[in-house]
Amino acid sequence: MSQTETGAQNKKLTRTDLFSMAIGQIIGVGIMTMTGIAIGFTGRSVNLAYLLAGVLTIVSAIPQIYIGGTANFPGGQYSQIAVLAGQKLAGIYTFVNLAMSLAISMYTLSFADYFLALVPGVNVKLLSFIVLTALFGMHLFGIKQAARLQNILCVVLAVAIGAYVAFGIGHIQPDYMDPDQFMTGGITGFLLASVYLNFACGGATYVVNYSSQAKNPTKDIPFVIIVSTGAIVVLYAVMSTIAAGVLPVSEVANQPLSVSAAVFMPGPVHTFFVVGGAIFALLTTLNFSIGMMTYPALRACKDGWLPKGLATCNKKFGTPHWILLAFYLIGLVPILVGLDLTTVANSTVILTTAIRGVIAYAALRLPKIMPELWGQSKFHVSDKALKVVCGLTLVITVISIVLLLVSTAPVQILGNCCILALAVVLAFARNRHVKLEANYTAK
Q1: Label partner for 249 (CA 20 to 30 A): which of 229, 260, 364, 433?
Q2: What φ, ψ does residue 72 adopt, rounded to 5°?
Q3: Residue 344: enclosing H or E segment and its boundaries?
Q4: Distance between CA 138 and CA 151 in Å, rounded?
Q5: How many helices (H) and strands (E) does the chain have?
């Protein structure tokens, strides 16, 4: 396999680049809305709920770290599943990954909606087209360009979040620990809030899909997953303390962060927080998602799940231009025809959560499939410890799915079922045409 095919010529992402990518993925507009919902569950103990959510997130990420620290899988989660969990599961993942690309349009349209609130009269379709085209164009010229953009966007995000903390920390009410405001939902509400916030804290594990573009994937990716998740969880805990503490719980429960921000932020700063926080969070997530879906799809093309011609890479930049074009069109067509993609995009949420369970199952097979590399891994643990950690991840995954089933609209649950059924049918139909390669290296 040539260097261009494997992307070896384009391994340009440093640990700092990967860190920015992960931060941009974790920080989404969810923090703006999910914190208020969690306050509704548990009141001012939301900060402790965030910390517990962070622990759950990191525990769930450990199987991914075991795999990523043992070998480099250029196809990211696709290659990990293919090598460790089996061909058919890899096929199902491939077609679910395609369905996830619909979220590209949702992020773009949400960006345009926020911008429209700032600049009334803007043509939403035209703006969405420009943003989507610009970001995909950036990826055509190499992943390093996308990483530089991510670094800039993360700086703006940091300033917006920093402003929220700096202006708000002094306005926390002295009665913060009042029993009527703290643990309002009891232990059940607290645990529900923690499991719910697990979604706001996750996202860093997807940086593994950039493995083929990383300089030191087996060292940098596990580090980035742990550090970025830990850092953002602590930041979220501080932000949630402010969100729950500047007003009575009844006034901020189930409300976005902008409600609490309006109490202590001057008008222009408040506008910057809402715009710089929400809009730039969308852009960082969108920028990350393009690459997150592209590299697993590239490997799936080469194995035969998708047309192999799509895997052709640009000789100069080493980028899979046909795959990028395919995802671009998937994201563009719904924008042009005016579809409401919120329901469609949310119809993959349960499935993407289930992928954590598949990764945990894959990690359990490390001693059997890759005994030598696993034995040499700096993350190596005993078989008993491996089973305990992966078992905990499976339990957390099941609880998360149950929570989603309870809180998700029936039409979205049906969407998840339909996408899963279609993915299974396509995977079994294509299975005999697929020839998997052992797509991993020691470093």
Answers
A1: 229
A2: -95, 125
A3: helix 342-346
A4: 14
A5: 22, 0
pTM of the predicted model as reported, rounded to 2 decimal places: 0.85
Number of Cβ within 10 Å of residue 6's Cβ equals 20
In angstroms, the CA 110 to CA 121 distance is 16
The C-alpha atoms of residue 94 and residue 423 are separated, in whole angstroms, by 8
Reported residue count of the chain is 443
- Contacts of residue 191, defined as CB under 8 A and 6 or more positions apart, other chains included, come to none
- Interatomic CA distance for residues 32 and 281, integer angstroms: 10
The answer to whether the CB of 230 falls within 8 A of the CB of 54 is yes
Three-class DSSP category at 120: coil
Return phi, psi of residue 263, to 5°.
-70, -40
Please give the angle made by the CA atoms of 324, 116 and 38, to the nearest 5 degrees.
Answer: 85
Rounded-to-integer distance, Cα 401 and Cα 396, Å: 9
**Residue 402 burial (C-beta neighbours within 10 Å; 0-12, 13-18, 19+):** exposed
Interatomic CA distance for residues 417 and 80, integer angstroms: 24
Are 127 and 135 within 8 A, CB to CB? no
What SS3 class is residue 214? strand
Q: Tell me, what amino acid is at 97? A: N
pLDDT in tens, the chain (443 residues): 333 344 444 468 899 999 988 988 888 766 777 888 899 999 999 999 999 999 999 999 999 999 999 999 989 999 999 999 999 999 999 999 888 887 787 778 778 877 887 788 888 889 989 999 999 999 998 888 888 888 888 888 889 989 999 999 999 999 999 999 999 999 988 988 888 888 778 888 889 999 888 989 999 999 999 999 999 999 999 999 999 999 999 999 988 888 898 899 998 998 888 888 878 888 888 888 888 889 899 999 999 999 999 999 988 888 899 999 999 998 888 788 776 656 666 667 788 889 999 999 999 999 999 999 999 999 999 999 999 999 999 999 998 888 878 877 888 888 889 989 999 999 999 999 998 887 788 87
Alpha-carbon span 278 to 31, nearest angstrom: 9
Integer Cα distance of 359 and 81 in angstroms: 7
Quick one: tokens of 100? 């996830």
Q: Rounded distance, CA 334 to CA 312, Å?
A: 26
Q: How far is CA 113 from CA 27, 145, 200, 346, 395, in A?
A: 19, 26, 22, 18, 38
